[in-house]
Design a protein that fits this description.
The structure is a single chain. The chain is of the alpha+beta class. The chain contains seven helices and 15 strands. The strands form six sheets. Strands 4-3-2-7 form a four-stranded antiparallel β-sheet. A hairpin with a 2-residue loop joins strand 2 (about 30-35) and strand 3. The protein is globular and about 70 Å long. Mean pLDDT is about 85; it is low at about 310.
Length: about 300
């Protein structure tokens, strides 16, 4: 929408056409960060890997310290460890340094060991609060009559927390920088016109996640349309997403619900059957007011080394 607003619909359509042959840029999902004394801790999705089997849990008992009494049986300790593994499986984020370590040796056993030793936990970056609002009687444009006070639940970032994302492109200055600066002023998403969902842009050029292409990658974005993958060596979750078309004035009175799209979730480990320049696609999700709305579905790949065999 920023490209369309600043550069016009013709420019937007040419960029969408460019995506069909080779994406001019790819973008990750947004992830949390924490700032402490000018030091940033960046979080990434916990990689989805082959689950740990019972035999591996038994082996872990001998290599890690667990709170146990002399009278605790081995079975009791395994149950205790399995309970902690269940909590570990529910974690959504890992710190950047742990993620990068995982890309060099893709093993859930090693990642679980780091968790047990206290090297990371889920960041507590958001808090929930109730916000007072007033409903309006549209017949008299007033809060009197059928208007009333109500409360809605909203999420807020804790102090010194925020979101960041990765953007890969060969030409940042052509239009992307201008678009980000524009969105910085206009805000994005719901309630942007009432002063919420505003942000400031801080751009840093880096190659921290670039590396030699291997057999498999972890995607840092929701992606779709990767038809040829090795399912025996890929570990992923499929998530359904159904969103709305941004409610611009030209769509007033229209059905703005997009079609549901089934995505590979961020953190999915995918082994494609063949190497190509990019993975994923733009998905047409809505025909509205004579226009076609597309939804982004390209993978942001971080190539990884498989540190374990795939025996079943």
């Amino acid at each position: 929408w920023g490209i369309r607003t600043l550069f016009g619909e013709v420019k937007l359509l040419s960029i969408l056409e460019e995506f069909q042959s080779k994406p001019p840029f790819i973008v990750s999902s947004a992830f949390p960060f924490k700032k402490t004394d000018e030091k940033y801790t960046y979080y990434l999705p916990k990689p989805i890997m082959k689950p740990i089997g019972f035999t591996d849990l038994e082996k872990l008992i001998e290599t890690i310290k667990l709170e146990r009494e002399l009278y605790h049986s081995k079975k009791f300790v395994i149950v205790q460890l399995a309970s902690r593994y269940k909590k570990f499986r529910k974690l959504r984020w890992v710190p950047f340094n742990i993620f990068k370590k995982t890309t060099r040796n893709l093993s859930e056993k090693e990642l679980f060991r780091d968790y047990l030793e206290g090297w990371f936990k889920n960041p507590n970056y958001a808090e929930i609060g109730a916000t007072q609002r007033n409903s309006i009687d549209r017949l008299v444009t007033s809060t009197s009559g059928s208007g009333e006070t109500f409360y809605s639940v909203e999420s807020f970032f804790r102090e010194d927390h925020g979101l960041y994302f990765f953007l890969k492109t060969n030409n940042m200055d052509e239009y992307l920088l201008s678009v980000l600066k524009f969105l910085e002023d206009s805000g994005i998403g719901p309630n942007a016109r009432t002063g919420k969902n505003w942000f400031t842009v801080d751009i840093n050029e880096t190659s921290l996640l670039d590396g030699a292409e291997t057999e498999s990658f972890i995607t840092l974005s929701r992606c779709v349309g990767i038809d040829t993958i090795d399912t025996s060596k890929s570990f992923y979750r499929i998530v359904p997403v159904r969103s709305k078309v941004e409610s611009r004035q030209e769509f007033a009175g229209q059905d703005i619900w997009k079609d549901k799209v089934m995505y590979f979730e961020e953190g999915s480990t995918i082994k494609p059957d063949k190497k190509v320049d990019f993975y994923g696609s733009l998905v047409p999700v809505k025909k509205i007011a004579g226009k076609t709305i597309y939804q982004y579905g390209y993978a942001y790949p971080v190539w990884v080394h498989q540190g374990v065999k795939y025996e079943m």
